[in-house]
Each structure stands twice: as structure tokens, then as C-alpha cells.
Amino acid sequence: VQLQASGRGLVQTGGSLRLSCAASGINFRIYTMKWYRQAHGKQRELVAGITGDGNTNYVDSVKGRFTISRDNVRRTVSLQMNSLEPEDTAAYYCNVEAYQWNYWGQGTQVTVSS
Known about the structure:
The protein has strands spanning 2-6, 9-12, 17-24, 33-38, 45-50, 56-58, 66-71, 76-81, 90-98, 101-104, 108-113. By secondary structure, the chain is mostly beta strands. Strands 2, 4, 5, 6, 9, 10 and 11 form a seven-stranded mixed beta sheet that branches. The chain is globular and about 40 Å long.
């Protein structure tokens, strides 16, 4: 199982950024895909998740600003981030739990300047 993330960047407060993650090695359409983030010195937290049939959930701090989506044909999961705040600065990781194991993409850094 491989997860390849892309879309890192530096943006100003109020800006937007889109992260994407391409998955291989799994029957993508049946698995819940998730985005986590980890700010410097803090624990990794779940940001958003999307089930195989498109049901979504978000941490309260990003509701109304972030949108998770998936393309089961291209085997990708994306995170559209709008109205970014300095508190969103973190390394973002895509994740899937498959075959009784947690798989992680490489972290992609998002930095929001004030």
C-alpha cells in the first residue's frame, strides 16, 4: 500500500490550498480515507475523513472551511482548504486503515503566514 501526497505550500491568512493523495495497492473504493495533521510540538490530529460511499466528517476547527473529497476512478483523496488561518500550519498526512494496519503518506507541509 502506498500513499503519495502532494500540494504543500506557503499561503497568507485567508488563502486557499488543495492537497491530494494518490493511493495504490488497495481496493480504494471500499476504504475510508482520512487526512491528519501535526503541528510542531503537538499531537497528530484527525482533520477529516471520507467513507467509500462519500460520507464525510470533520474536526470542529475546520468545519465550513475544509472539504474532503475522493475520486474512486483516479484513486485519489483531496483536501480543499479555504480561509486558512495560522493555526492550520502543520504537516498534513493522508491515511488509510487497511489489512489491519495504518498506512500513512509522507507529510506535506502547509504554512499559513499572518
